From TrEMBL:
This protein's UniProt keywords: Membrane, Transmembrane, Transmembrane helix
UniProt-recorded name of the protein: Uncharacterized protein
Source organism per UniProt: Acinetobacter stercoris
Spans traversing the lipid bilayer: 6-22, 29-50, 70-96
Amino acid sequence: MLILGNLIGLIIVLFIGYWVAKTGWKLRYLAPFVFVVTSILIMILFIKLSPSEWERMQFFSNGTFAFNELAMQAIILSSGAGGIVTFLLVLGVWAVRKNVFF
């Protein structure tokens, strides 16, 4: 089942890469947008799944940035997910443009 899931994920990444390559969108504009949107969505998902931990997070203290451990973990998690999704987008577009699998 894991191999089938990976295959389906690869097909989805290639489909999105084909779609982006054929519509002519520029990756220099699309990649930062995808990173930011994915990071925000993961942060919202984290808020919805664990509201008790969200209440204990501190991003600011006395008007300055002062992250506690939970806030740092949330930022690292959302940034990591955004980075992975952006990498998969760029990889899919590159594979379609260079005819890697076709």
